[in-house]
Specification:
Layout: H1 2-34, H2 48-72, H3 79-94, E1 116-119, E2 125-127, H4 128-137, E3 153-156, H5 165-177, H6 206-230
Antiparallel strand pairs: 1-2, 1-3
Amino acid sequence: MGEETERLRRALVHALEDRVQAARRRIEIQAEDVGPREDPVQEGGEGEGEREAVGDGQGLFARVRQMASDLRGGGVVTGKMMREARALRERDENVPSCSRFSRCCIICYHPNPRQRAVFVRCGHIVCYPCAVDYASKSSSGGKCVYCRSTSGFVKIFETECAEGEEADAVIYEKREKRPIPVPPEDSIRKEDDLSPVPVPRAPPSPYRLLIALSFLLAAVAVFIALFMFSD
């Protein structure tokens, strides 16, 4: 763990140095093209380009921190995420979804959760409240609730569609507006033209012929035996 932290720190330092040097080069090029600046430096000795470089460095630091968090197993669960998960859980319990397709959560077994989440590394899908609750209670970083593999989770953005009676009404309306195709008269066959179609009979298989022959030979043998014993 110490080697990984040191490697991330070095990468962050090199990236910040590159950003600062690039910002200084841009400032020098602008100064050569425009000439002397009217408001070069404000209080504290920091120009606009240096403030921009610092801002870029802070954004880069946030991205590197997020990348390190993802490598350890997912982002930190915030209070906003917990409030959203709690609201979704209450809504699912009070107003059940009328979805026709089964989207059962493998943890809480809710049949149709409104918001689901997928774990990036293993691909297991659970409802969003279960993912947030488990990540907030886990102390070893983000892990899949199902297979326990180290992975972060993201939301699944699913579009809501009309379901139930509304969907049936839309389908019926489209069917009523659609004209019924009528076949041409030449292709319509009359009752007089309908002749019975002969069904070809399949030839008997050799197995059936062998069975019939064995029964015939057995009958002949019985008949001969009865004739001989009767004398």
